[in-house]
Amino acid sequence: MKCLPMCSFLILFVWFSDQHVTAETAKPPNVLFILTEDQGSHLSLLGTPGLKTPYMDSLARRGCFFSNAFVTYPVCSASKAAIYTGLYNHTNGILNNTHNYHKPPSQITDAERERRLYQINRVKPQYTTLIEWLKKRGYYQGVTHKLHVAPVEKFPYDEFLGGSISGVKGFLERAKTTGRPWFLLVNLPETHRPYPNSDRDSIRVRTDELELPSYLPDTPAVRKDWSEYLAGVEKADRLVGQTLAYLDASGETDETIVIFMSDHGPTYPHGKMTLYDLGLRVPLAISGPGLPENQVHEHLVCGLDLFPTLLELIDGDLQAVNRFDGKSLAGVFKSEQPSTTGLREFVFGEISNRGPLPNDGIQERSVNDGRWKLIYRERVEAGWRQVNADSREFKVWGNRTYRETIERKSEFPRQYQVLLEMDPQTLGGSVPRLELYDLQDDPDEMNNLVAEVEHQTHRDRLLNALAVWVEQTRDDSIVELDDLRRGLR
Prior knowledge:
Layout: E1 30-36, H1 54-61, E2 63-70, H2 76-85, H3 89-92, H4 110-113, H5 116-120, H6 130-136, E3 140-144, E4 159-161, H7 167-178, E5 182-188, H8 220-250, E6 256-262, H9 277-280, E7 281-287, E8 295-302, H10 306-314, H11 330-334, E9 347-352, E10 363-368, E11 372-378, H12 401-407, H13 413-422, H14 424-427, E12 434-438, H15 456-472, H16 481-488
Parallel strand pairs: 1-5, 1-6, 2-8, 3-4, 3-5
Antiparallel strand pairs: 2-7, 9-10, 10-11, 11-12
Helix pairs in contact: 7-8, 15-16
């Protein structure tokens, strides 16, 4: 353990009372889950140049911060599904974005139910979601802004609130009158494109104070785009502050577990819908009464771990749900010198360019041991990857970087190569089957070491770990891995 600051992106903040809820008569803790959209591992706490996030930073400093935290799928619906179920997406059933029906099941029309994407891209009926489990425990539950997972029946919220942060105050007041514990998911889209437009509105972030990652061309247009992204993070930070003020005013802070995280990284090359760190790495911190303060833990953790963690903190019984791919972090919270027993040796990521999508595209998987990272792909000859509109378009989504990278490709050929690999079907690029990175020396993942003889031990070790994971989690979409491993011997 070390003292803050440290780098990371999945921020899980927990306020938990000194007394663990064990007595049958004790009221379980409330849960406030603040989820930003498309926010990478960027906080002023982490030293992000040009950025100020005082409310997020203060939450991290109140307790434990996890410096190696990740999501398992770098797009909204799939990432949420993994968090809600504690299961990898090739198991839970949501392989990409699905329709967003932010309303009770009774209000969904027959035409909406019959849409193919809604029917195919959904959590399988045999798996319990966090919201179903909390409902059985008597929780009163609300969600703001969007649901974006399916089917809605698997997410039995009592209230589907609008996008205004002021709705939090009303929910907390109504929930308190029920006398029941409550769960509230606050979605904050301010970090999703389109970001604040600095051509129209003044933003605090200055382009000359930024430090661009090396996979982006350093031009005025890209600096403007990155500054607007950071301005969106700052806007979200202010809403985090307002949300916490409402919680404090309710008088229930000491009775409430508070989670803050993002669903995945921002819409840039190496970000959203890619398995690089910009797409997968997230901040995670946990704080609360009785928990250690101002500590950093370097354990590998991921979004799958939230459901079992909440289950153990609330109920103490991990057998209440039939299975998890995630691991509970409750033991880490309970000790100032936590054991690493039971925590993961690797984190895995996946992208399935198939299923409800228009063709059978590239299968992508990653494995990361905290320093070394391997990305593996099948069907690269198909040359097709899912690229979201906000990763390309300026008119609707305000993306200045995509077009600028193409226009300045002669000056920034390596950055253009990154873009080619992100969008091969549009730009005529090709995607490598294997990539290996030393995240300590190359955190931007620009130097693929897979062909270097001196690093083949790491390559083979991570391929073996991936093969074990594929077998254990029944990832039936991966069919060529064993042949590749034999060919490399």
